[in-house]
Every structure is written in structure tokens, then in C-alpha cells.
Amino acid sequence: MDKERSESSKKYRYTKQLVRIAIENGYTNADVAVKAGLSKTSISMVSRWRNGESLATERQMRSLINEFGHHLKRRMEHLLCFIDDENGEQKFFHLEGDILLKHTIRIPVNTGKFEKTVNIGTHRIMMIENENKLIVLFQSRVGLQEKLKAENIKNLAHSDNEEANWLTYSIGSSNDPLTVIDFMSKHIKNIKIYQTSTFLSDIQQNEHLILAYKARQTLLRHGYTINDLIKIDLSLCEIQDKVTQ
Predict the structure, then answer these.
(1) Would you state the pLDDT for residue 241?
(2) Do residues 131 and 174 touch, judged by C-beta distance below 8 A?
(3) Any idea which of 27-36, 76-85, 231-240 has the lowest mean pLDDT?
(4) Structural domains in the chain?
(5) Most Cβ neighbours (<10 Å): which of 79, 91, 138, 147?
(6) Pick from 197, 105, 196: which is nearest to 150 by CA?
(7) CB 11 within 8 A of CB 57
(8) What value does the mean pLDDT take over residues 4-19?
(9) How many angstroms separate the CA atoms of 83 and 170, rounded?
(10) Minimal CA–CA distance to 130: which of 161, 156, 88, 98?
(11) CA-to-CA distance for 171 and 136, rounded, in angstroms?
């Protein structure tokens, strides 16, 4: 009885993530409402849960927890690997949160064999959401050297476990989307990869522009307000159909 009372009032912190998993697995807002013990017409409430504007109770989420809880746990738990700069010791950290964005920077390398060029993933940026806080991770490929050339591609990690291929070297967090975007922008400008002693500034600039777009698109889709967006004045975009006599 005490447990039932607790579940009926306690808010479920992962409401948004769980509802989105249910939607990804074919549920409609009406289906989620019924599973939560609401009427089919309560889709506006489900929309609020889905956008993170409100939290359901544990009782309301119990059916979805039983059905999709294992998906949620797998998605929310992350193992990060760091290398201590002082002694080179490998350290591991555990982080919880919902991955909103993964962006991999790929550098073209001429292998010299049949003049073939391959794109090698050298750096990765991840954005994770944890209790309405945005966390950004900057990662580099295990075995990456300052000069990326065909002869040292073999030194890069190529594990079948993709997450084991990455070392985290920088982490930051904020509640403000623009602060997070600015943090990513500054870091991507400072990434230096050399290929036969030539700095790939064009690729760096392209990645900066791509990430600036992807970050804003991702945050918008997850219900965040991006204050630097400019609203188009549709009155200035009207097509004038003029007929010349």
C-alpha cells in the first residue's frame, strides 16, 4: 500500500526519455495515454511529457517501464575512458543521460595504394542530456597521432566495440543551449590534425558550420529554445505575380 501511494505521487525523472522510446517503437500519443491510465483524448498531456514540459508519476509510467525499461537503461548509461595527462593512467567514469547528438569528424587520407583515399574518424563530439542539463564530450580516436598519414592509420584503434575506440579529453555542461553551442564551436576551432604537414583548415571550417547547424536542429527537436534564431518575416517573401501587358 505504501509503495502504491509513493508511485502515485512521485514524479518519474525519465518521463521524456521513456515516452520517446515508446513512440520510437510504434506507440502513438493516444497509446501512451491509455498505458498511463488516461483517456485517449489526453494526448496534450503526453505531448507535454514527450517535450519535457511536465513529468508523469511513477504509477503512470509503470506499464511503459515494464515494457521499455531495459531500452531506457541501455540508452542512458555510458562508460567514458580518460587518460591521465600526468602519469598516462587509464581511468573510467560512468555517466548517465540521454544522447542527443553524436558528430564524428572524418579526415581524408591518401593511402598511396591505387591513389585511394579513405575517410578516417579522428574526433567525436557528443551531446548528452541529464536532468535538463546539457553535457558535451570531446573525444579523440585511440592511437591518434598529431600527423595523420597513411603509414600510421594502422596505429588507430579499430575495435568492433565502437565506444572502445574513443578517449574523452574534454567535458563541459550548462543549462543554456547557446553556452553549449559556443563551447562546441570554440573546441572544434582548436582541433588540430595535420596531414603531410598541411593543416586541413577547410575541413575544420566545414565541420564548424555543420556542427553549428546540427546542434541547433537537435536542440530544437528536443524542445529547447535557441535565442539566436531569426524569425522570417513572411510578408517580405510574398511572390508578386505581375502580368506585363
Answers:
(1) 64
(2) no
(3) 231-240
(4) 2-76 (1.10.260), 97-221 (no CATH)
(5) 138
(6) 196
(7) yes
(8) 77
(9) 11
(10) 98
(11) 6
